[in-house]
Amino acid sequence: MNILGSVQRLGKALMLPIAILPIAALLLRLGAPDVLNIPFMSSSGNAIISNLPLLFALGIGIGLSKDEHGSAGLAAAVSYFVLVASAKAINPDIDMSFFAGFIAGIIGGVVYNKFNDVKLPEWLGFFAGKRLPPIMSGIITLIFGFAAGYLWPYAQNGLNEIAQTVLSSGSIGEFGYGVLNRLLLPFGLHHVINSYIWFLLGSCQQIQVDPVAALHGATHLCVDPSVTKDLVVGQSHTFYFNNSVTPEIQATVTKITNNIVNGDISRFLAGDKSAGVYLAGFFPVMMGGLPGAALAMYFAAPKENRAIVGGILFSLGFTAFLTGITEPLEFSFVFIAPVLFLIHAILTGLSLVISNAFGILDGFGFSAGAIDYVLNWGLATKPLALLVQIIAFFFIYFIIFYFSIKFFKLKTPGREDDFNATTAMSQNSKTEQETSERGKNFIVALGGDDNIEIIDSCITRLRLTLRDSTTINENELKRLGAKAIVKLSDKNIQVILGTIAEQVAKEIKASKQ
């Protein structure tokens, strides 16, 4: 598999552990003092956040395995424990955090694919097959653990420098990340850059405090690890947070934990009041901007086509607003009107800059939709100001998209030269009627059974490795429900389907058996 295909496969594998975040965020917030005040519920959510490196190892290992077998997850777990323990035995000060999970997950998945069908002599037969990868993973990881014990401090220093550069880059970094996040979307590579920002950028150490009135009665904070050595349990301390409208927080420490949390999402959920810089700006785009774009495309369509495209656009716009799932809507214009997608990427970068300039901080467990916005209200900084920005971006997107479409005569839904109202109306109903045969129909559209080598999926897209991508029938794929087809190489393609992608992948696999 080429490098691009490998990166794509890693991006797909990351989706499995990322899917854990919503339940962690839900438990944390619902159990918080300012919501339901159920300590055991918030503690359960905090336990998930604290063990995310191990959970990422398990998820990545299973995601990278060729048949998503549990043995790959077990191999990754063994690798994680061996990697962390062996490195710490050499250097007790080492804390690999999420990197240990990433490395162990990759080792577990690769080792599983290599050894899961190895045959051993009869007297060793018990250890053959699916039982062998966890054993081999532990042995192989010893080498990585030994190397990490001596070399990781240098790597950590380099990563810390990168993190400091990103965090101190201000508006340039925020704008650049926002633009790149969208520009990489068509290729499915945005997950790679997201993973660094979400789960690796910055670190904090969790502590427990008496309820803080200024933070809606919060009993957990996540502070700079360098200050915890000076904290005394039972005493009141002043904590300083950057990028917050409440930079000074007075609290009495009740417990100092050993939990180190990394990344903008994890730090935000754990109580770091300086986190959310690279998250808040997505709410105006997903809750306001893209629904505004959908409305603009509706009014820009010829009147005779509005009834047809309206149902689709309004459904996609509402999905973006409510859940933050935006790919189906974005892929309705990314290829037929790429100038709009470029505008969208620039506006996303500007949104991150604007939100941080006004001291707005917010985060999400799944995506920047209304559900996360409401759920994390008590954790957010200036949530009302963020709501104003959301409304403003609705009108900004509507105006820019509508007049750009009209002035440049862009081909958006309902304005295509080959728009067929009958096909558009019947597409969804046909797909439902043919659900039982959908897997077989996709196989035919993808060039036949022999042309399909690897079938993967993430939240909204099929990720496929084919023998020859030129043999696919794009018109048939679109008839079956594809929003777009992205050809990354002669062998690697992605089929954008929306949230039915995983179900379609299962149907294709079942039809191939």
UniProtKB/TrEMBL annotation:
It comes from Paraphotobacterium marinum. Residues 1-417 form the PTS EIIC type-1 domain. This is PTS N-acetylmuramic acid transporter subunit IIBC. GO terms for biological process: N-acetylglucosamine transport; phosphoenolpyruvate-dependent sugar phosphotransferase system. It is found in: Cell membrane. It is a multi-pass membrane protein. InterPro entries: Glu_permease_IIB, PTrfase_EIIB_Cys, PTS_EIIC, PTS_EIIC_1, PTS_Glucose_EIICBA, PTS_IIB_1, PTS_IIBC_nag. It comes from the Bacteria. Keywords: Cell membrane, Kinase, Membrane, Phosphotransferase system, Sugar transport, Transferase, Transmembrane, Transmembrane helix, Transport. The active site is at C458. The chain crosses the membrane at residues 12-32, 44-64, 96-115, 135-152, 277-300, 307-325, 331-353, 386-405. Pfam families: PTS_EIIB, PTS_EIIC. One of its GO terms (molecular function) is kinase activity. The lineage of its organism: Bacteria, Pseudomonadati, Pseudomonadota, Gammaproteobacteria, Vibrionales. The keyword ATP-binding does not apply. Residues 436-513 form the PTS EIIB type-1 domain. GO terms for cellular component: organelle inner membrane; plasma membrane.
